[in-house]
Specification:
This protein is of the alpha+beta class. It is 22% helix and 24% strand. The strands form 3 sheets. Strands 1, 2, 5, 6, 9, 10, 11, 12, 13, 14, 15 and 16 form a 12-stranded mixed sheet that branches. The protein has a 4-stranded antiparallel sheet with strand order 4-3-8-7, with no helix packed on it. A two-stranded antiparallel ribbon has the order 17-18. It binds zinc ion (ZN).
Amino acid sequence: MAHVRRTDRQMADGRPIHYFDDTEPWVSGARERSAVDTRDLPAVATTSTMRWDVLTGEWVAHAAHRQDRTFMPPADLCPLCPARPGKEPGEVPEADYDVVVFANRFPSYAGAGTSLASEPAGLVDGEALWPVRPAVGRCEVVCFTADHSATFASLPVSRVRTVVEAWADRTAELSSLAGVREGGEVFVFENRGKEIGVTLQHPHGQIYAYPAPAPRTSQLLVQAQRHRAAHGTSLLADVLAAEQRAGTRVVLRGEHWTAYVPAAARWPVEFHLAPHRDVPDLAALDDGERDELAVVYSEMLGRLDRYFDGVDALPYIAGWHQAPLGPERELGRLHLQAFSVLRQPGKLKYLAGSESGAGAWINDTTPERIADRLREVAS
Ligand SMILES: [Zn+2]
């Protein structure tokens, strides 16, 4: 079992920061005298709202304060790097860390666990068609390493294991907050590469705790409910079993995890990773599953970076879909979806008319070819 030590501190504006140290002597907050965030920071704005899109049945968040957020600072101004003499103070006051998590300074969703969570919904312009509510939730940043120029795939497996521990810890805590626990969802993800819109180069991911199931989850719940009514079984478990049975798109199979390209993959590079045991979220994984996840995830990210000859850092999005909280929780099942917008070296898959306008996806390759390539580039 990984020995990870969590230490909680507060940032200058009251935001919580959590250090996850895996190696003695503990490098960051767990030391006897921890560094203090002395910056003069105004309180975080929590002015986002969500409006109901009556045409799609989805909530859309409006977070105008995010226009001011830090965009692609040079390395010596990186807010995610640890404190160094002569460096502009950033978000992390300690001089080093293993993995650190803190609340985003420019959150799209905020106020979970506060009185904002019980604020009633109103109406835009008094029209019953347009409910509006505060965008209650929590947005956290997860720094995978103190090394500015590293990538997730380059981390030792022991450090990836610490990240898994941090993800599980944050999933459990955010799931318990008022405003999330009643029927929200905790989404753990990493955006990698400027092609994806990353605004900070430091290796990091994010965690969004939403007040309601995200639209993709809502669609999945409808499908899972239909499947259960027709067959009496779990849709996500049946999909995993079918992929294992077919085997044609299975990319990697371990004792606890299977990675496969879904039969109807929509991205030019895509794989899913699912645990063999029915678990709702990362917090429910046991030690054996967490240990193997660190190995398997690291291997799969390495394969992404070897996917195209001449592209050594594939832009990708990797997101953990976890069971929503609330009454429909049993319909969900933990799985990762990882994909790239790169279809060939130097060529991005743009979501153009058919995808963005009509929501009708066209993939320029086949799921079986993607799986072949992902097997070819095994380490
Ligand atoms: Zn940095």
